[in-house]
Write a structure and sequence with these properties.
Layout: E1 39-51, E2 56-67, E3 74-79, E4 83-92, E5 103-105, E6 115-117, E7 129-130, E8 133-139, E9 142-148, E10 158-168, E11 173-176, E12 188-191, E13 212-219, E14 225-228, E15 232-236, E16 241-250, E17 257-260, E18 263-268, E19 271-275, H1 280-287, H2 290-302, E20 311-315, E21 323-324, E22 329-333, H3 340-353, E23 360-362, H4 369-387, H5 389-410, H6 435-451, H7 455-469, E24 472-474, H8 476-486, H9 488-492, H10 503-508, H11 523-536, H12 541-549, H13 558-570, H14 576-591, H15 595-607, H16 614-623, H17 627-639, H18 643-653, H19 659-672, H20 681-693, H21 714-717
Parallel strand pairs: 1-13, 19-20, 20-22, 23-24
Antiparallel strand pairs: 1-2, 2-10, 3-9, 4-7, 4-10, 5-6, 8-9, 11-12, 12-17, 13-16, 14-17, 15-16, 18-19, 21-22
Helix pairs in contact: 2-3, 2-4, 3-4, 4-5, 4-6, 5-6, 5-11, 5-13, 11-13, 13-15, 14-15, 15-16, 15-17, 17-18, 17-19, 19-20
Length: 721
């Protein structure tokens, strides 16, 4: 790749470039230590070397910036103690960001991170002028990196800062040994940046308010396939490196990488799946053709898909959430492949994020609903267009049921139930990820759609909203002002001030949604669930069980069965004779169904201390390596009378779990051990060290759902980012 950069001259030795149009400063983000308000980030370039044997990433980052005022004293970036900075330097940059690509040289092992090379500055000049820097504590989830800048730096004068570093034990970077993959053949690594983890991947403005294009050059061990969230990619075989380019501005958290034994299969004209070879046939058969249907439906609703390709990569069970909407390359946990309806909903949700979240992004994590609530609304419009209103209403009822469950557990005055959550300094914004963000946000967006009286007119508004704000970050007022401008008749009616339904109250009141959608179009699917649940809670039991046994739930949709089991879970502990009859009627049948169904039945078993089915719990935990199918069961086991059983199963299975998940379960066990359990000295040592070993900002705490005894488990959230 040819590179053209300006000749090195003393700062200020030439006329200042023409001043570009003013840009609004990024919204203040208390989760970022950076000085993003003082600079415009034009582009970032990454040179990365993956070193799986050392579990280390070696990087060289070239930031292309302009200062927004003269002579800024320092550049402050978000960083992390996992980053070891080797050097920081400065060089002038040409006026156009596209004119300053660089290549990277990868030194021999042990000789440090990659080195940048610029065609206009051969040899040592490519290193630039050294800059002083320091790393200071910021929060439990990151540090601040302060870089001293040359005093002569002019406003709007493009410049580059080059940072060479290595990253080990980074919360954003998950290294898997071969035995933690399905194929057991090659090491695997993936990154997970949401919400504030990518500051341990590379120093950055780690705030959704700042977007830029990026490029990357990645070197990996021979035979390891590398993918990134990029619009263009190429593998240069003679160099053994991958080149990636993201042509549209994205926030730092959406820069994502995965590498391992991955093979592709086309599933549509602009989509393919990537998976380990043993999973590829299943992934292909379940998604072939349908992803294009979903993309086309979304385009009819919200305008052209702007990212080029839409590919999906299936990750091993260690992936800490269900799915992540990285542009051009959705990450999704492979465990969900066996649950068809959940797979459909999760992928469509990530498709919707291509418009809401990726193209138009919440400017701060305090308003995450702007991405998640709108994406959930768009997801349900897509499913209605593709699968009909009844299915959409069933899925919505299932999720709203979970929302009200979470509300009962947290209380209606919980501050996290607000749409505009106040993020206190030091609190990890990932802990704000809850069902209110999704479902209360969805209810507000649905309410707005009802105000205009026609879903198609509201689709037109959202299309205009995306067109206006694409590739930028917004706050709630931007959405609401655009809504009232698009529908002036509603503005004249002062719909934003209707008593009890004020927009401000929607945003800042705690508690449940102020209004919920009419789900009567799904009654053909939800009524049988309600009827069966009522039978099992009726008297006398013998008559109820006989009537219930005549209902064949094997013909039900997954969401129907899951909703029925959730209702039983809400009523647990149940009378023992009811649990016994439930087991006799359903246990064998449910044991043959997908994991989303099985985990719910097994939670009923555990919460009711039903020992005859405990062997099914053991078998399930012996076969699962995913946090979404292990954490809820371990939490329930340690809450009740089965702590010693949980301990026994854990010590038989821990070798197959990712270290982050293993530490989380150890913490659950250590806090759950009571007088009835006498751990051995070995157990006490290992469990006692678990809490100390658990990095508070590690992905193990990504969803804020693992607090033992929280009783809000992944089955309640089952969240896709």
């Amino acid at each position: 790749m040819a590179a053209q950069c300006c000749c090195r001259k003393a700062p200020g030795a030439e006329a200042a470039p023409a001043r570009p149009p003013p840009e609004p400063p990024p919204a203040l983000d208390v989760a970022s230590a950076s000085s993003a308000q003082l600079f415009r980030l034009r582009h970032l370039q990454l040179g990365l070397e993956l070193r799986p044997e050392a579990r280390e990433l070696a990087g060289c980052l070239v930031l292309e910036l302009c200062a927004l005022r003269p002579a800024p004293r320092a550049l402050v970036l978000d960083a992390h103690p996992a980053l070891r900075l080797h050097s920081v330097s400065y060089r002038r940059a040409p006026a156009a960001a596209s004119d300053s690509p660089c290549t990277f040289a990868f030194p021999a092992p042990g000789l440090g991170p990659p080195l940048p090379a610029f065609t206009d500055a051969p040899g040592a000049e490519s290193a630039g002028c050294p800059l002083a820097f320091r790393l200071d504590p910021f929060t439990d989830y990151g540090s601040s990196l302060t870089v001293t800048l040359p005093p002569e730096l002019q406003a709007h004068q493009p410049f580059q800062v080059i940072l060479r570093y290595t990253s080990t034990d980074a919360p954003a970077i998950w290294w898997l040994d071969p035995e933690l993959t399905y194929g057991n053949a090659k090491p695997f690594v993936f990154t997970q940046g949401h919400s504030v983890c990518n500051r341990s991947f590379f120093p950055c403005f780690d705030t959704p308010a700042v977007k830029c294009t990026y490029s990357a050059v990645v070197k990996a061990p021979l035979g390891v396939q590398v993918l990134m969230s990029a619009t263009r990619s190429v593998y240069v075989e003679e160099d053994g490196v991958y080149h990636f380019h993201m042509d549209h501005p994205v926030p730092a958290y959406l820069v994502a990488l995965v590498a391992g034994d991955l093979k592709p299969a086309d599933i549509g004209p602009r989509s393919r799946v990537w998976a380990e070879p043993c999973l590829l046939p299943t992934a292909t058969s379940k998604l072939s053709g349908v992803v294009e249907q979903w993309l086309s439906a979304a385009e009819r609703l919200y305008g052209p898909y702007m990212w080029g390709r839409y590919d999906i990569v299936f990750l091993p069970p260690s992936f800490p959430i269900v799915a992540m909407e990285n542009p051009c390359l959705t990450f999704i946990i492979s465990s969900i492949l066996e649950s068809d309806e959940f797979l459909v909903i999760d992928v469509i949700h990530e498709v919707a994020h291509s418009w809401f979240g990726n193209a138009v992004t919440n400017a701060t994590w305090e308003e995450m609903w702007l991405s998640e609530g709108l994406a959930t609304y768009a997801q349900r419009r897509i499913t209605t267009e593709t699968y009909g209103a009844a299915f959409t209403c069933l899925e919505t009822a299932f999720r709203l049921d979970a929302l009200h469950r979470q509300m009962r557990l947290l209380g209606e005055d919980s501050p996290v139930s607000k749409l505009q959550v106040k993020l206190e300094p030091g609190v990890n914004p990932s802990h704000l990820m809850n069902l209110f963000t999704y479902e209360k946000g969805y209810c507000f967006v649905y309410y707005l759609s009802q105000l205009c009286g026609d879903p198609q007119r509201f689709d037109d508004f959202l299309r205009a909203y995306v067109e206006k704000y694409k590739f930028t970050s917004v706050v709630a007022q931007d959405l609401l002002d655009s809504f009232l401008s698009f529908f002036p008749e509603l503005k004249e009616q002062s719909v934003d001030c209707r008593a009890g339904l004020e927009f401000e109250r929607w945003l800042n009141a705690t508690g449940p949604p102020l209004a919920e959608p009419d789900l009567s179009q799904g009654s053909s699917l939800t009524r049988p669930v309600e009827a069966l649940f009522q039978l099992w809670t009726a008297e006398p039991l013998e008559q109820a069980a006989a009537s219930a046994s005549a209902i064949d739930i094997s013909k039900w949709r997954t969401f129907q069965t899951a909703l029925f089991l959730d209702r039983l879970l809400d009523g647990s502990p149940l009378p023992q004779d009811v649990v016994m009859s439930l087991s006799k009627c359903y246990s064998s049948l449910l044991d043959s169904m997908n994991a989303e169904i099985r985990i719910r039945w097994l939670q009923i078993v555990v919460r009711n201390d039903y020992y005859p089915d405990l062997h099914r719990v053991r078998r399930f935990l012996e076969s699962q390596m995913s946090r979404m199918y292990t954490i809820p069961l371990y939490e329930d086991l340690c809450t009740g009378a089965l702590k010693s059983f949980a301990l026994e199963v854990f010590y038989q299975t821990q070798g197959r779990l990712h270290p982050n998940l293993r530490r989380t379960i150890q913490q659950i066990l250590s806090q759950g051990l009571g007088p009835s359990v006498e751990p051995t000295a070995e157990t006490s040592t290992e469990l006692g060290s678990a809490e100390a070993d658990t990095n508070p900002d590690s992905p193990a705490l990504l969803l804020g759902d693992e607090a033992p005894s929280s009783t809000i488990s992944l089955r309640d959230v089952n969240v896709s980012a």
